[in-house]
Amino acid sequence: MTTDRPNAPMPPSSQHTIGPFFPRTFFQKGDNDLTRIEAEAAPTRRGEAILLRGRVFREVGVPCVNMIVEAWQADADGHFNHPLDPERHLADPGFLGWGRAWTDEEGRYEFRTVIPGGYPDSVGPRAPHINLTAMGAGLMRRVLTTVFFPDFPDENATDPVLSPLPAPLRERLVAVPEGEEEGARVFRFDLRLRGAPHEETPFFED
């Protein structure tokens, strides 16, 4: 559309799904490893290493292929290497705290990270958690959710984000232990973007 008035307001356009979509070459070795500040660096020696993995689904169990899943979290002591953290100087210098994964043909993703620490917040003490966002074909905008851990029932019971939710929704935000692999405990957390109300993953506003 063109106009004779360059600064004139443009009429709203229709919504489209997220794009363009990224090729496999967009992802580099170590992008899904939050324990290293770069691919060739040694992993952090602080905290307990874990694998967080799962699948991303649409309705009736259809896997989401080529979805981008991003994770960010505090380090093992509950600090962020970020200017907004007043205790940034205490953050683990060997822990990146952010990573990106790409779903395969079965909708699977995986992150290597550490069990995060809890931390104080203006709305109340936060339980250990990992934030996830997903974006890709079929979504109008990215979706965000939070993964909690069964190791911290007392902290989860008072977390200002998790505790206000109805019990069935809280259960869907707690990762499921699945043994050990590569010297690390494994936790599963599936993302169900659409589906029956009792199956869909709770998502939060950006």
SSE diagram, text form:
Elements: E1 49-57, E2 68-73, E3 98-102, E4 108-114, E5 129-135, E6 143-148, H1 153-158, H2 167-171, E7 176-181, E8 184-188, E9 191-192
Parallel strand pairs: 1-8, 1-9
Antiparallel strand pairs: 1-4, 2-3, 2-5, 5-6, 7-8
Structural account:
The chain is mainly beta and 206 residues long. It has a single domain (24-192), classed as Sandwich (Protocatechuate 3,4-Dioxygenase, subunit A), CATH 2.60.130. It is 5% helix and 26% strand. The protein contains two helices and nine strands, in the order ββββββααβββ. Strands 1, 4, 7, 8 and 9 form a five-stranded mixed beta sheet that branches. Strands 3-2-5-6 form a four-stranded antiparallel beta sheet, with no helix packed on it. A hairpin with a 7-residue loop joins strand 5 and strand 6 (143-148). The longest helix has 6 residues, at 153-158. The chain is globular and about 60 Å long. It starts with 48 loop residues before the first strand and ends in a 14-residue tail after the last strand. The model has no long low-confidence stretch (mean pLDDT 88).
Strand content: 25-35%
Kindly report the average pLDDT value. Answer: 88
User: Which regions are unreliable across 5 or more consecutive residues at pLDDT < 50?
Assistant: none
CATH superfamily: Aromatic compound dioxygenase
How many strand elements? 9
Return the string of H and E elements: EEEEEEHHEEE
CATH class: Mainly Beta
User: Percent range for helical residues?
Assistant: under 10%
Radius of gyration over alpha carbons? 19 Å
